[in-house]
Specification:
Helices cover about 35% and strands about 20% of the residues. It is an alpha/beta fold. It has 2 domains: about 130 residues, Aspartate Aminotransferase, domain 1; about 230 residues, Aspartate Aminotransferase, domain 2, CATH 3.40.640.10. The strands form 5 sheets. It has a 4-stranded mixed β-sheet with strand order 1-2-3-15. The chain has a 4-stranded parallel β-sheet with strand order 6-5-7-10, with helices on both faces. Strands 13-14-17-16 form a 4-stranded antiparallel β-sheet, covered by helices on one side. The longest helix is centred in the last third of the chain and has 20 residues. It is globular. The protein starts with about 20 loop residues before the first strand and ends with a helix. The mean pLDDT is about 95. The structure holds pyridoxal-5'-phosphate. The site of pyridoxal-5'-phosphate (PLP) has 15 residues, from helix 4.
Length: about 400
């Protein structure tokens, strides 16, 4: 089982600065590396492992599916697609779903929907409003929509047709778009994830909804990271009581099995027809089973309530721990999507937390991000704080490099 961990990989492309461990197996919110060292999982594979590891109900269901059919083809009907689409429509209040395999693919489909929505209205050069610090993926189109120059550097020319505005400022949005007849959609994450855990204000979401109605634009909310129960509602925009027209999903939807989806309401549900969009893997029986069972288990075990309750507990404990501590700028987020912003880059905490037996991430250079499985218990939340707080305090006591 244990392969030696190499400091650099001779054959895998060097696209990640990896920590010097390899995980071998997990149980619940715990994982073990190939040397047998245990870790508490505050990362959940970056908001992916909704049900933690080796879930006693998910694993047998997937084993059953593996032995029946892993993949067929979109040449045929896939009953699991009907089942999962119906469930996602019930949970979201929207009407139709396209399935793919990743977050960027879901966003790519959303961008194509928006462009065709424009072309169908006679707009030949459609433009989409996107946001500063947004992250939508790393394909050419989605990195163009992303608001991070580091992710774009080296990959120009970027895809055109995006207009960028700051988050949570309705006046700037109105001003920037007022004389532009080419706008077709507004596209944002309900809580920016990679950009540093920046929530969109509920009032702003309502104002954007009204503006999209008034101007006949699509409201497209990227729920790839903040969706699927993470904030304590199925989708983070539901806290604002609004409905989007287009909602890309991925990450947590399959508890680790690759899956993506674009969920659309009436304004966007019938834009694509046969031949307009497709993908070989999207909606395959294994991924559909993972999605259906993930949602079923979440409902059965009331994991939305758990995410809200344990998330609030974790946030309060972090606030207590860091209150008045110079160097901690903010503790923010909702449910089990939390960020601790420091006043300096803190990437080194990744290694130190790993050594201490805690998996987490650092995003936007100075924000410690916690996106654990939604089965996290309050005792495990307390354990995260007990592991993390001394590391942060010691780090902040060091001279700034
Ligand atoms: C992770 C993420 C994506 C990209 O998903 P991939 O599966 O990595 O392509 C897109 N949008 C948001 C908000 C994300 O967090």
């Amino acid at each position: 089982m244990s392969a030696p961990v190499q400091p650099t990989s001779p054959h895998v492309m060097n696209t990640y600065g990896r920590l010097p461990i390899a995980l071998s197996h997990g149980q619940g919110c715990r994982v073990w590396d190939t040397n047998g060292k245990a870790y508490l999982d505050g990362l959940g594979g970056i908001a992916v492992n909704t049900l933690g590891h080796n879930h006693p109900e998910l694993v047998p269901a997937l084993q059953d599916q593996l032995s029946k059919l892993i993949h067929s083809s979109n040449y045929y009907h896939v009953p699991g697609q009907e089942q999962l689409a119906a469930k996602l429509c019930e949970l979201s209040g929207l009407t139709n779903v396209f399935f793919c395999s990743t977050g960027l693919e879901a966003n790519e489909a959303a961008l194509k929907l928006a462009r065709k929505f424009g072309h169908d209205k006679g707009i030949e050069r459609p433009e989409i409003v996107v946001y500063e610090h947004a992250f939508h993926g790393r394909s050419i189109a989605t990195l163009s929509a992303t608001g991070n120059p580091k992710i774009q550097a080296g990959f120009g020319p970027l895809v055109e047709g995006f207009i960028r505005v700051p988050l949570n400022d309705i006046e700037v949005l109105k001003k920037t778009t007022q004389d532009n007849p080419n706008i077709v959609a507004v596209f944002f994450e309900a809580i920016q994830g990679e950009g540093g855990i920046h929530p969109v204000q509920l009032e702003y979401m309502k104002q954007v909804r009204a503006l999209c109605d008034q101007k006949n634009w699509l409201m497209m909310i990227d729920e790839v990271q903040c969706g699927m129960g993470r904030t304590g509602k199925w989708f983070a925009h539901q806290w604002a009581g609004i409905l989007p027209d287009v909602m890309p999903l991925a990450k947590g939807l399959g508890s680790g099995v690759p899956i993506g989806a674009v969920v659309a309401g009436p304004k966007a549900a019938h834009i694509f027809g046969p031949g307009n969009h497709g993908t070989t893997f999207g909606g395959n029986p294994l991924a559909m089973r993972a999605g259906v069972e993930t949602i079923r288990i979440m409902e059965e075990h009331k994991l939305l309530d758990n995410a809200a309750r344990v998330g609030a507990h974790l946030k309060a404990a972090l606030e207590r721990e860091f209150e008045g501590l110079a160097g901690v700028k903010d503790v923010r987020g909702q449910g089990l999507m939390l960020g601790i912003e420091l006043d300096r880059p803190c990437g080194v905490l990744l290694n130190r937390a790993c050594e201490a037996g805690l998996l987490l991430s650092v995003t936007a250079d100075s924000v410690i991000r916690l996106v654990p499985p939604l089965i996290l218990s309050t005792a495990e939340a307390d354990e995260i704080v007990a592991l993390l707080a001394p590391l942060v305090k010691a780090f902040l006591a060091e001279p700034i490099k």
